[in-house]
Each structure stands twice: as structure tokens, then as C-alpha cells.
Specification:
The chain is of the alpha/beta class and about 425 residues long. It has eleven helices and 19 strands. Helix 2 packs parallel to helix 7 and helix 8 crosses helix 11. The longest helix has 26 residues. It is globular, with a radius of gyration of 21 Å. The two termini are about 40 Å apart. The site of flavin-adenine dinucleotide has 42 residues, from helix 1, strand 2, strand 8, helix 5 and strand 12.
């Protein structure tokens, strides 16, 4: 049953603010479990989101759970990562293991609109063009959220539980007390679109040797993610570049000029045609470097909770996963709930080890001299890069028993024990 809400209802059981992958997944799973849920977003859909549009096997797994495998396959399918740099090119198939052995890429304007539709078709109420601006409290519980309508009038929606999926800046999260710690490594990244004769390439490409105009190695990487050519003629690729930074070591590179330079370096090899379009850049809090992720009856998910992999910048998968996880918590109905305790503990259980070691390694990679020294060593070894692909993509499940998985989990546990500030706190 599809429910389109033209006006805000006065109340709902669960209010989800933000209809990106995290919010739409939460709303879809909640509605499928029979919960009364309202999915609200300040943007009018379809809307763009600055992103590389890459869907690694972790995201494909989650989209498959939602019933979208065939829809994805009709877009584009890739079989792994082609890593370029330091004089080498390696084709590294997705490892499979506990995840699908294929990836995809879908422009966010289309992906997010479709995911929001899936939530609506699952039974969620939805409204767009309404910005959440204030919170109403009843003791330590959120009792409602005030929205500003397109005509600037204010409307309150009462709710029993609140899920905040309002993205990287998380304005509603801030009202609730969320803060992001920039002393932990974060990303600065930009993306663009450009026509390419290789838009059907079955590999996504990453250039691990990213150089500035003076030829110095930067800490970061460039990517070219083929988007397919379903419309006929040369289709497009998503072309972008990202670098890592910390408060102590801020990114000293202008992302958009870097992207243009990178495009020129790749133009001939990747059959790039014309100019970059829709250039945009954004910051990326990563690895759970956020405190205040939950209170008595509210929780932050996705980017709002800093659920982005520090080693590859992907967060669509973690948004989808945390959306499903919070829906599970809210529909389990076990005893008197206190999300302020349950939610950060669950995030740490799922992501603690992987995010802790990943952000430690990413912190090291903010040093360009180390990248220049270690990059060539890694790129000389197929085996090392295959391991790196699996680890960097966090393509390890708790069930995996092979040596690579055991080493990754062991390193994660050691890293966690040495963290000066626990993740998600
Ligand atoms: C340049 C770049 C490249 C990236 N590449 C990749 C990639 O290739 N693969 C990958 O997996 N990840 C990538 N990421 C990360 C990915 O984009 C995010 O992790 C992902 O979008 C998180 O989803 P989300 O649902 O948490 O937030 P979002 O997708 O940001 O959605 C948040 C929603 O909240 C709404 N909102 C915000 N404030 C309010 C408010 N006050 N009231 C109502 N609504 C509100 C917004 O309109 C938005 O629709 C990239 C990020 C960047 C910056």
C-alpha cells in the first residue's frame, strides 16, 4: 500500500528525519514490521547528494535484503576494484566470503528516490520539503519535532520514538547534543560526472597515487566509477577525489581543482569526453567519531552517527545497515527501552573493532610521506592488495573464520583497547 502524505500528521509512533539511505531503510523496515512511521525530509525528491555513487558488496548485500538485487543488476554490475598507482595496475575481484561477489553504482539522485519509494511502498508515510528545526521535550524524552514548511510556517509532529538520519552535518542531531570530533581522521572529498567510452567497464577504478600540480604525492585517492550506458551512447562515470585530514593535519588541497587535474591525467586512458559536470565536495565524519548518538527514546543513524568507513569513505552501506538495525531495536519490544544505553553499545559491538583499526590506519595515511614510501611496496604485491581490498572495504563478517578475517579482527581488538576515546561516545 502506498501512502503519500501531503500534510504533516499531528503524531506518529516513529518519526524518521532524513530520507537518505539510512532514513529510508529504517522507515522501510519499520513499516514492514507494522510500525506507524513518518519519513520526513527537508529536500524535495528526487534530490542530489554529493557522493561517489559506489555500491560495494556490503551495500549490495543490504540492498538485496531490501529486495533490490534485480533493480541494481539492471543498472550496472562490477566485479571488483582496479587499483592503479606507483607504476602498477592490479585487478582485484571482490572477495565474496560473507558478502555478494559483485558491486554496482547508481547516481544518488536515482538511488535515494528509489529507496524512499521502497519505504513508501512498504507502508511508511512520507513528506518532503519540511525541515526539522526544533525538538519538544517531555522530561528526558523527545515528545515531538517542529518542522518548517516550504511556506515557512511551523508545524509540530508528536512522536513516541525519533530516528535522526539527517546526514553529515546532522542539524537535528546538534539540537539533541551530538558532537563530531575532528581530532579523529575525517575525509574531504569531491565528485563530478563526465561522459566516458568506458562507462560499461566491469571494474571500478581507484588511483592510490594521487599527485598535486607540483607532482607531490597526496594522502588520498581518486576514483572512476562506471555508471553504465543504459540510455545508449557513451554513458557517464562518477569521477572524484578524496583526501584524509585531522584537526592537527588539515587537508591543504583544494578538492575541485584536484578533481580537474585528476580528470586530465585520466582523460585518454578512460576515454573521458567533454567537461566535468555537477562538481561538488563535502566533509565526511568517519569511524564513529561522534558523541551523543542516542538518548532515552531517540537515536542517530548513518552519517549523523559517523558511520563511514575511514579507509574507503563509503557510508551508503552503513546507512542501510544502521537503518535496519534501529528498526530491529524499535520493533523488538523488549522491556523498558533506553536507547541512550542500547544504541551506542550496539554500534560499538557491530563496528567498534573495524572502525577503530580503520581510523588508526587512515590516521597514518594522512602523512603523504608514508603514503609515498608504503604505496609502491603494497602495489607490488597482488596478495597484499587483495588483503587490503578486503580489509579496507571491511568485507569481513563475524562468521568468517579464514586467516585474513582473524587477523583483521585481532588488529581491531588491539586497536580498540588503545583508543583514548571510545567510539560513539
Ligand atoms: C564526495 C563523497 C563521495 C562519497 N562516495 C561514496 C561512495 O562511493 N560509496 C558510499 O557508500 N559512500 C560514499 N560517500 C558517503 C555517503 O555519501 C554517505 O555515507 C551516505 O550518503 C550516508 O547516508 P545518510 O542517509 O546517513 O545521509 P544522507 O544521504 O546525507 O541523507 C540525509 C538526509 O537528511 C536530510 N536532512 C538534513 N537535515 C534535515 C532537517 N533538518 N530536516 C529534514 N531533513 C533533513 C537531507 O536532505 C538528506 O536527504 C561519499 C561521500 C562524499 C562526500
Amino acid at each position: 500500500m502506498q501512502v503519500m502524505t501531503a500534510v504533516l500528521p499531528a503524531s506518529t509512533d516513529v518519526l524518521v528525519v532524513g530520507a537518505g539511505p539510512a532514513g529510508s531503510a529504517a522507515a522501510a523496515w519499520l513499516a514492514r514490521a507494522g510500525t506507524d512511521v513518518l519519513l520526513a525530509d527537508m529536500a524535495v525528491f528526487p534530490r542530489d547528494k554529493t557522493c561517489g555513487d559506489g555500491l560495494t558488496p556490503r551495500a549490495v548485500g543490504e540492498l538485496t535484503r531490501l529486495g533490490l538485487a534485480d533493480w541494481l543488476r539492471a543498472h550496472t554490475v562490477n566485479r571488483g576494484l582496479r587499483a592503479h598507482g606507483f607504476g602498477q595496475t592490479l585487478e582485484l575481484p571482490w572477495p565474496g566470503a560473507g558478502f555478494p561477489d559483485w558491486g554496482s553504482a547508481v547516481p544518488r539522485t536515482e538511488l535515494d528516490d528509489h529507496l524512499r519509494d521502497v519505504a513508501i511502498k512498504s507502508g511508511a508515510n512520507a513528506i518532503d520539503g519540511y525541515k526539522a528545526v526544533e525538538v519538544r521535550w517531555s522530561g528526558d524524552r523527545v515528545a515531538g519535532v517542529v518542522f518548517r514548511a516550504p511556506d515557512r510556517t511551523k508545524h509540530e509532529v508528536r512522536c513516541r520514538r525519533l530516528v535522526v538520519a539527517d546526514g553529515v552535518r546532522s542539524p537535528l542531531g546538534k539540537v539533541l547534543g551530538r558532537s563530531w570530533h575532528r581530532d579523529t581522521v575525517y575525509g574531504v572529498a569531491g565528485r563530478s560526472y563526465i561522459r566516458s567510452t568506458r562507462s560499461d567497464d566491469p571494474w571500478i577504478s581507484s588511483h592510490l597515487e594521487l599527485r598535486d600540480e607540483q607532482g607531490s604525492v597526496l594522502s588520498g585517492y581518486g576514483w572512476i566509477f562506471p555508471l553504465g550506458s543504459a540510455g545508449g551512447g557513451p554513458g557517464e562515470v562518477n569521477l572524484g577525489a578524496g583526501t584524509l585530514a585531522t584537526a592537527k593535519r588539515p587537508a591543504e588541497v583544494a578538492i575541485k581543482p584536484l578533481m580537474r587535474l585528476y580528470a586530465e591525467q585520466c582523460r585518454a586512458e578512460f576515454g573521458l569526453e567533454g567537461e566535468l559536470r555537477a562538481e561538488a565536495s563535502a566533509l565526511l565524519p568517519m569511524g564513529g567519531a561522534v558523541s551523543g548518538v542516542a538518548g532515552r527514546n531517540w537515536a542517530l543513524i548513518g552519517d549523523a552517527a559517523g558511520c563511514v568507513n575511514p579507509l574507503n569513505g563509503e557510508g551508503i552501506d552503513y546507512g542501510l545497515e544502521t537503518g535496519r538495525m534501529i528498526a530491529g531495536v524499535l520493533t523488538e519490544g523488549a522491556g523498558p527501552e533506553d536507547l541512550g544505553v542500547i544504541w551506542p553499545a550496539l554500534l560499538r559491538e557491530h563496528y567498534g573493532e573495524a572502525f577503530s583499526i580503520a581510523r588508526r590506519l587512515a590516521g597514518i595515511a594522512t602523512n603523504p610521506r608514508l603514503v609515498a614510501a608504503l604505496g609502491p611496496v603494497g602495489m607490488r604485491s597482488d596478495l597484499l592488495m587483495t588483503l587490503a581490498l578486503r580489509w579496507m572495504g571491511n568485507l569481513v563478517t563475524d562468521e568468517d573464520r579464514d586467516r585474513a578475517a582473524r587477523v583483521w579482527r585481532w588488529a581491531g581488538r588491539r586497536s580498540l583497547a588503545h583508543d583514548h576515546r571510545p567510539l560513539f561516545s
